[in-house]
Amino acid sequence: MNKKYNIPMLFITFTLLVASFLILTKSITNQNEYSLAQFNEVINPPEQYRILDFDKWTGEKSPANVSQVENSSITVIEEDTEVVQKITNILNEKTLTPIIKEEFDINYSDLNDNVKFWLYAYIESEASNKNFYPYNVFIDKNLNLYVETEKAGDYRYLKSSITEDEYKLIEDLYNTLFKQKEVA
């Protein structure tokens, strides 16, 4: 009689172990998943934007794939609250379409020499648990806009386009700050 009960118990135990393993594996691998759901959120302004012009880079690797120390000579920092808000308003005025992470990540390597500006920001973790912030923004020479935003582990990779006037605003801002940096 004991043998009859051992086989079902072994089967139940094995099933529970497999289910536990699958649940654990899924929770580990989903930690940094992203959503392709429609994005209807407001992106909050960071305290500052670091802006880098890819055209000024002379290194072999993409400037987005090297340390901040290595690309600091061509990076400017915009801290003026009104200007930071104006840049963030540009993002919020767009219809941002979700894209897959791989499409966004192509900008880091810039294999096609198409990226012009990279805007990135550091956000306090407590603030990013409550609101979406723009961690990385790439603007290419064809006026495409790529945005990585996140709130409480909800990563979103988004794409839109900007107008020539908006592009010029970023370009003028960068050039002004870069000239000030060269003088200092």
In short:
42% of the residues lie in helices and 22% in strands. It is an alpha+beta fold and 184 residues long.
Can you walk me through this structure?
The chain has 184 residues and is α+β, with helices and mostly antiparallel strands. It has two domains: 1-31; 49-183, no CATH class. It is 42% helix and 22% strand. The protein has helices spanning 2-29, 68-71, 81-93, 101-109, 125-128, 164-183, and strands at residues 49-53, 75-78, 97-98, 115-120, 133-140, 144-151, 154-161. It has a seven-stranded antiparallel beta sheet with strand order 2-1-4-5-6-7-3, sandwiched between helices. The longest helix has 28 residues, at 2-29.
> Based on the structure, what is the oligomeric state of the protein chains?
single chain
**Distance separating the two termini:** 88 Å
Low-confidence sequence ranges: 22-31
Q: Sum up the overall morphology in one term.
A: globular
β content, as a range?
15-25%
Q: What is the averaged pLDDT score?
A: 86
Largest sheet entry = 7 strands, antiparallel
Q: Give the radius of gyration.
A: 22 Å
Domain module tally: 2
DSSP helix fraction: 40-55%
Strand line-up of the largest beta sheet: 2-1-4-5-6-7-3
Structural class: alpha+beta
N-to-C SSE string, H for helix and E for strand? HEHEHEHEHEEEH
Count of helical stretches: 6
Q: Give the number of DSSP strands.
A: 7
